[in-house]
Amino acid sequence: MLDSTVPVVEYSRYSNRQLAAVPIALLALSLLVIAGMWVATGTPVDPGIDFTGGTELQIQTDAPRGEIVAAFETEPVSIQSIATQEGEYIVTFQSTDTGAIEQQATEAGFTVTSISSTSAAFGAETQYQAVVGVAIAFVGMSVLVALMFRTFVPSIAVVLSAFSDIVIPVALMNLFGIQLSLGTVAALLMLIGYSVDSDLLLNNHVLRRRGDFYESTHRAMRTGITMTVTSILAMLVMTSVATLFAIPLLPAIGIVLVFGLLADLMNTYLLNVSLLRWYKYEGVGR
Amino acid sequence: MSALDLVRKHWRISLLVVLVAISAVVLFAPGFGPDDAGGEPTADTGPTNLQFGLELSGGTRIRAPLAGLTAEGLDVQAGQETEIESQVAEELGISVRNVNAYPGEPEVEDDGTIEITTETVTEEEFLAALRASNYDVEEGDVRRGVTEDTVDDAVEVLEEKISRSPFAAGEVRKSTSSTGEHFVVIEVPGEDRETVIDLIEDRGFVQVYAHHPTEVGYENTTAIQPDDINSIGEPTDEPPYGPHISITLNEAGAEDFSRVMQETGFTQEGVESCRWDQNRDDPGYCLLTVVDGEVVYSASLGESLAASIESGAYVDDPRFVMSGESIEDVRQLRINLLAGETPAPLDIEAGTQYYLEPSLADDFKLYSLITGFVAVVAVAGAVAFRYSRPRIAGPMILTAAAEVFLLLGFAAAVGYPLDLAAIAGFIAVVGTGVDDLIIIADEILQEGDVSTGRVFESRFRKAFWVIGAAAATTIIAMSPLAFLSLGDLTGFALFTIVGVLIGVLVTRPAYGDVLRVLLTTDR
Questions:
Q1: Which residues, other chains included, contact A169 with Cβ-Cβ below 8 Å and sequence gap of 6+?
Q2: Which residues of A touch B399 (CB under 8 A)?
Q3: Residues A234, A263: one domain?
Q4: pLDDT digits (tens), chain A, 286 positions
Q5: Residues of B in contact with A114 (CB under 8 A)
Q6: Chain A residues with CB inside 8 Å of B473's CB?
Q7: Number of domains within chain A
Q8: Shared domain check, A136 and A224
Q9: What is the pLDDT of residues B488-516, one digit of tens each?
Q10: Do the interacting molecules here have an ipTM over 0.90?
Q11: How far does the CA of residue A130 sit from the closest CA of chain B (Å)?
Q12: Does A227 touch chain B (CB under 8 A)?
């Protein structure tokens, strides 16, 4: 009746240490990447203009790149061309003198299709709120998980997985040069909710059902992997279609969720499983 | 079994069907469309009653704090406000209009507030002026920004300005950050940044000065203030005045105006003698139209008007023509006169600005719809592949679609303007929704037939524990976004939370019921 699209992992062949080694190593590596970024640039991730303040202009022009730079009195921080739309560029400035920038663009004959600007003070405030928001969400989730399981190790397993599910995408954002924007913060918050699903499912099957550990794990995996793979698929499709159409915000949310859900597959079925097995066979008696 | 019994037995499915029907009505039936407080229809919403935010309809959004300074915890006795205001204004050398004193609660000691509503005063100057007025204040007692009351007033004035403007449609609201800082958010669909900024940038305090020579040089005497005006006509461009509006003064205003004109000599030697454009140092007798301290137009007092003031007939027919350089100028004058002065200047540079061209927004609208649709198709494909039985996969896909439909109905019902963040929220809801349906399906389909209702109920309840727990964590994770007013992501958080709630309370239980019907009659 149920097909075999989900692989069967022979957990019994590996020790807990072996299982946990890969996710722990990746988590450590990710933290290293973030720390390195922090030391090198002063911030753990590259903040976009939502947080630093600045002006972003989307323009339409036949002019080559060099002329775009020359048209503005203040030097742009970056000029990105939109892959699918010819002659469309997104030009970013640190300056928030939006009126002057818009005027220079119009005078140079560019068609301004979109403007977005944030003052440095407002950006700093947003950054503070984003940090507080992620912290509140994470602590709230941790408390809720602890209340649901009322035991230390299974709760910690879920919280640790969720932590890693956020840290790994942030490290990947650094590696791929994706800026932190309001959209990616939203995606990180969403990950807290999304990634816990499969961990809850696994813990629930192992702790609250009768039956053998491996069988329970296998059942949970069959459901959980379907869930996560379906979500990854949805996000992958959203990211690629939105990128193709040059829709803002959606690709950033999508790609971070894909990173996080991939990390979640690994964390749930390697890290969380090993912690649960340790708890079930060795930890309970203590 | 009667129809009623059937409904009662499958109440979860019935509830879903009823809600889907309600959503359809709210979404498509005319009469449920959004309208503003005045009852006028706002922007065209297309075939549905859905409203679209700026990111999907185009237009301009300005978010800005009001400039000013506020000192709280001062002793301001009720009844003394005017005295304190004029004392502080005099110390600072600013107009008394830009100083507000509020007494606060009478029982509480030192609950008064004094605020400055202009950007020209520094914190040090304000502190010095307060000390000179016998207030014992220290450096930390003065904060930047104005009081909440002033922000509320500003929102009202700006709303009025927008509703009086040629584009009429627009929204103004207050938003408060987690640190308590207030911002005014102005959204005008379809208009570009410059047009909107031109409308709202100036505070718009309109006065007419009588600029006239005296023995000690030129002096300005206030001839007409906004309080003096009874009614204002439509802007017109007709000879002999050119672009102008015709205003009617009230009785007190007409008397004041007549008195000033006679006392300053306008009705005698001053008739038709303004040379402002030629010689500003010695312009003669000029009526200057001044907005926020800047002269926007100059005119002489005409002969017939002078005669009517002299004879005393003017008070019976107190009309005054206010001219401008262009019809746009006059229109702006009229808006400023009707809406009044913004109580404090907008500090546009200190906030955020956003503009999107309407045609690009239309593209985004269509493309994000396609994106959402393709994502749903991808999910449907994955589900169909995993559960090859149409009896499981079919209802699953339908249920997920119903969830999105209900969410759209919710958006239309509350008139929430959809933006890109909300669309992302929709797609996220499809993702979590299908996740939960997979949990239900797997739990119910585990080995052993679902032969009786009891077995079904017990499996369903087990599945629901995980679903409920997962929903609770998602809601907790999203709530900071919804309540912290974090930028423009409220839509994402709101729709994810509402979507999860709709899912847990309505659609996912209904899916369980559908499975029960399909599986227990399967033999």
A1: A187, A188, A191, A256, A259, A260, A263
A2: none
A3: yes
A4: 344 456 667 788 888 888 899 999 999 999 999 999 999 988 899 888 888 899 998 998 888 888 888 888 888 888 888 766 778 888 999 888 888 898 899 888 898 989 999 998 888 888 888 888 889 999 999 999 999 888 888 999 999 999 999 999 999 999 998 888 888 888 898 888 888 888 999 998 888 877 788 888 988 998 999 999 998 998 999 999 998 888 888 888 899 999 999 999 999 999 999 999 998 887 654 4
A5: 355-357, 360
A6: 141, 144-145, 192-193, 196-197, 200
A7: 2
A8: yes
A9: 677 778 888 899 999 999 998 899 888 88
A10: no
A11: 7
A12: yes
A83, A103, A118 - which closes a domain: A118
Chosen from A226, A236, A255, A261 to mutate, greatest number of chain B CBs within 10 A: A226
- Asked if B224 reaches chain A (Cβ–Cβ under 8 Å), the answer is no
Residue of chain A minimizing CA distance to B449: A1
| Residue A181 counted as domain residue | yes
**Sign of the torsion formed by the C-alpha atoms of A142, A145, A150 and A153:** negative
Q: Which residues of chain A neighbour B354 with C-beta distances below 8 Å? A: 115-117
Q: Do A122 and B424 touch (CB under 8 A)?
A: no
pLDDT of residue A2: 43
A208 and A243 housed in the same domain: yes
| Cβ-Cβ contacts under 8 Å for B363 (sequence gap 6 or more) | A245
Q: Which of A189, A230, A245 sits opposite B480 (nearest CB)?
A: A189
Q: Are residues B335 and B373 in the same domain?
A: no
Amino acid letter for position A162: A
Interchain CB contact of A25 with B (< 8 Å): no
Set of chain A residues whose Cβ sits within 8 Å of the Cβ of B178 = 128-129, 132
Q: Which residues of A touch B423 (CB under 8 A)?
A: 250
Tokens at residue B379, please? 């999910």
Instruction: Report how far residue A165's alpha carbon sits from residue A187's, in angstroms, rounded to the nearest whole number.
Output: 11
For chain B, residues with pLDDT lower than 70 are 1, 31-46, 447-451, 485-488, 521-523
Distance, CA of A98 to CA of A94 (rounded, Å): 10
A283 and chain B in contact, CB less than 8 A: no
Chain A residues in contact with B496 (beta carbon < 8 A): 190, 193
Give the DSSP letter string of B136-197. ---GGGEEES--HHHHHHHHHHHHHHHHHSTT---EEEEEE-TTS-EEEEEEEET--HHHHH
Query: Same structural domain for residues B94 and B229?
Result: no
List the domain range (segments joined by +) for residue A188.
11-48+121-281
pLDDT given for residue A165 in this prediction: 94
Instruction: Provide the 10 A C-beta neighbour count for residue B478.
Output: 27
Contact B470 A196 (CB under 8 A): yes
* C-beta atoms of B374 and A237 within 8 A: yes
Give me the residue from A125, A148, A231 closest to B435, CB to CB: A231
Question: What pLDDT, on a 0 to 100 scale, did the predictor assign at position B501?
Answer: 92
The amino acid at A128: Y
Q: Give the CATH number of the domain where residue A63 resides.
A: 3.30.70.330
Closest CA of chain A from B125, distance in Å:
23
Hey, how many other C-beta atoms are within 10 angstroms of the C-beta on A51? 28
Q: Is B383 on the interface with A (CB under 8 A)?
A: yes
How many Cα atoms sit within 13 Å of A238 on the Cβ side?
32
- Chain centroid to Cα B9, Å, comes to 47
pLDDT digits (tens, 9 = 90+) for A84-142: 677 888 899 988 888 889 889 988 889 898 999 999 888 888 888 888 888 999 999 99
Segments forming the whole domain that contains residue B292 = 206-339
pLDDT digits (tens, 9 = 90+) for B164-212: 888 778 889 888 877 778 899 999 988 989 889 988 888 888 889 988 8
For residue B242, give the CATH number of its domain.
3.30.1360
Nearest to B383 by CA among B368, B398, B370, B373: B398
Using CA coordinates, name the residue in chain B closest to A261: B431
